[in-house]
Design brief:
Rossmann fold, single chain, mainly alpha, 3-stranded parallel sheet, Tyrosyl-Transfer RNA Synthetase, two-stranded antiparallel ribbon, 51% helix, 2 domains
Length: 341
Amino acid sequence: MKKRIFSGAQPTGELHIGNYLGALKNWVALQDEYESFYCIVNLHAITLPQDPKILRQKTLDLARIYLAAGVDPEKATIFIQSDVPEHAELTWVLSCQSRMGELERMTQFKDKAKVKFKGEQLTFGGEDVTFGAPSVGFGLLAYPVLMAADILLYQTDLVPIGQDQKQHLELTRDLAERFNRDFGDTFKVPEPFIPPVGAKIMSLQDPAKKMSKSDENLNGSIFLLDDADTITKKIKRAVTDSGTDINFDETRPAIKNLLTIYQLLSAKTADECVEHFAGSGYGDFKGQLAETVVEFLRPFQERIKEYDAPSLDAILKKGAEKARSIASETLQDVYEKTGIK
């Protein structure tokens, strides 16, 4: 039997070229070798406030992006997280196995939970008040537990992740091992899959920072639905390093990042890329990179339009049915072992 993989993305913001190179590209490559489950994780999205109408539309748009990227519904299972209620049910069980300390140590929680006045003393109504713990929703703290439930429900062998998700996967592994120890062998303990190249595409404006959907500087990201003019302008405005050589030099992260994007989209080896741009200036390099990105995204953007509402609904319904057939078995086993059923 094929080993199983699981991954997903949130339907918030706009996906960018880094999301494609770090995740979607690998999903497509892995779907032939593994039994693949790719989820639109809309429950994760509501850890922060969302406009309901926009969230629903972005959920469907993201499913179209999966398909346009090459995820094949005949090979992989594509579904919406909220269509499989077992995700929320297992999250509660795993929450009872989680420790507050390990959740509070999650880097993502600490970053998002920062507030302006934490630790400061201000005067309200004539009294001095010192701000203590930040006021954030419980969902932000519990986010990694829901992620663990997503993965463990499907007895997942392999999880394609970026570097920033390694901590969450470690928690998933810890929860699986803890549950197996206390209640008997129940969950597979998943392994990470981190692509050797392109796992972390950096911002075009700040090569020390990862390209992000939430970056306030829109020039830092090339979004998958950007038009040709916008892409070209963003790449021309991309920061560069001192020096003139175009190569994969760790001490020149801006050029290395741009060259990595070119390498992954052109399917050239690292040596071929360096040789191709030998003697070229930054202007010529950026022009060729922009052309490569535009030509790559043009057919991708056309494929998105191929999936109308009825065809997309049929794919997602079929995917949810397949996902539930496996998730329900896992949850039933969990409930029996914990004495709930």
